[in-house]
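Prompt: I keep going back and forth on a fold encoding question. Comparing notes only helps if you start from a blank page. Show me how you would write down a chain together with its backbone fold. Please set it down just below, with no commentary around it:
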Amino acid sequence: MADSIRFGKVSNINYKTGCMEVTYEDREDSVTDMIPMLANAGYKMPKVGDTVVVAHNSNGEEEGVVLGTTWGENENPPEGAQNLYRQDFDDKPGKCYFRYDGKKATFHNEGDTKSETKKNKTETVDGNAELEVKGKLTVKVGSCTVTIQGGTVQIVGGSQISMNAPTITIDGGTVNITGGGGDAVISGISLVNHTHKYTLPLHAGGMGDTVKPT
């Protein structure tokens, strides 16, 4: 092949091997053998019909590598600006992408997102942090679970739940404390088993004990 750099259209793709056939319309629709895509340690195959740039050896079109796709009349950038970096991960622009404009980094995904860390993970935020969940939020640590949905917050501890602060405020129209035969103790006083002394009426005289709460 006389030209070492040529433009053609992808006509067939082997997704497993990362290779493709390229058709050259300006060469009587001649088709290359399966040639590889330049990887750069990543994987992103073009679509059939995309225009690609191919580098060939001088000994024939069967020896070559696809350098990448090009922007053109049928394939325009989803957006453009100076100092903008953007990478789309789906064939449809805007469905899943990462962008950075020199000030802010954004990751957008219209599908599910999963992050998995086998060992430790540390995140440091020097400013403010905000997490907005429109559905249900569930946090699980061992046998403990915190579930938040709508106006309800549920905390389930496997063995014990502790709150420690100089002041703890619980404010609600109705406060219910229940336990499976257990007790609630405040400042050493049992709410289930406590009794206290009181002065008997004058005709009875002396002191008496109240009964346990029921």
About this structure: Residues 82-110 form one domain.
